[in-house]
Amino acid sequence: ALEKYAVVATVLLTIPVPAIPHKVFGFSCYPTGTFTETLTTRELQFVLDRGEIHQVSRFARYRQDWIFKEAIEEIRSKELEAKNAGNKILHRLYKKMRQGLYGKWAQRGRRMKRLEERPPWARDGTEVYDQARDESKSYEEFGGEWWEISKDLVSYNSFPAIGAHITADARLALYEWIELAGWENTYVVDTDGLMVNQAGYDRLKHLLHPSDLGKLRVEKVADNASVLAPKQWSCGDAERWKGKPKDAIEIMPGRF
Fold first, then answer.
1. Does a structural domain hold residue 94?
2. How many domains does the chain have?
3. For 209-225, how does the pLDDT look when each residue is reduced to its tens digit (9 = 90+)?
4. Same domain for 76 and 125
5. What is the pLDDT of residues 121-176, one digit of tens each?
6. Is there a single domain that holds both residue 128 and residue 147?
7. Which of 94, 127, 152 is the last residue of a domain?
8. What angle do CA 24, 26, 28 make, to 5 degrees?
9. DSSP calls for the chain
10. What domain range is 53 assigned to?
11. Domain contains 182
12. For residues 44 and 48, what is the distance between their CA atoms, to the nearest angstrom?
């Protein structure tokens, strides 16, 4: 069925390698062993290949086909044309269009209702939680009018299963690249890339391409690197420090 349909399923699984994400006390971890998780098609196949599925609690299956393939290829072509022409504005616009399509599938919904007058207790930006309906609302002033804004889990045309498949496939691609490069040669994994040493690079270089989607490309080469935490590292003169503004001034080691 996994060859014919796209599937989302909640399963009890055993996996001997740290490839499947699982929330522990609110944090995403990659445990080994036995646990219950909701997985998408490629993750399910990975568990069947590398571990075992003991039980399926519930599942949904979907007919699958290519969608928006021509549109993405056209946008990508325009993006590269703009980049080669040095047009930074158009390049950024096309890049945002391409990347934004992924996020739209799991976008949260908003319902806006125009009010005849401001509720006497409301101020611009007031947030209210309705416990009986388990619903949050905000009250905002815009264009001289007052609006009641309700947030839904998903927007009208959302389809979270598509976004979940894209995210899971990207995660598994990263995991496979780590295994290919070698755990001992991989220092950082961050969203859509890796920091590796020369041995890791040599094992991955056949996957390099400067512009093909889904391929790797070299972003930085350096003789030295420092890794302090998952979102806190440097590679040569390139630095990633989550939460620290680029113009922050260090007043003492580790404090800005």
1. yes
2. 3
3. 988 988 999 999 999 98
4. no
5. 888 889 888 888 778 889 998 888 999 988 777 777 889 999 999 999 999 999 99
6. yes
7. 152
8. 60
9. -TTTEEEEEEEEEEESSS-S-EEETTEEE---EEEEEEEEHHHHHHHHHHSEEEEEEEEEEEE----SHHHHHHHHHHHHHHHHTT-HHHHHHHHHHHHHHHHHTTPPEEEEEEESS--TT--TTEEEEETTTTEEEEEEEETTEEEEEEEESS-TT--HHHHHHHHHHHHHHHHHHHHHH-GGGEEEEETTEEEE-HHHHHHHGGGB-SS-TTSB------S-EEEEETTEEEETTEEEETT--TT---SBTTB-
10. 5-63
11. no
12. 6
Give residues with Cβ within 8 angstroms of 72, minimum separation 6.
98, 101, 213
Q: Which residues of 134-172 are buried (b: 16+ CB within 10 A; e: fewer)?
A: eeebbbeeeeeebebeeeeeeeeebeebbbbbbbbeebb
In a domain, 55, yes or no: yes
CB atoms within 10 A of CB 10: 14
Say if 255 falls within a structural domain: no
pTM value > 0.85: no
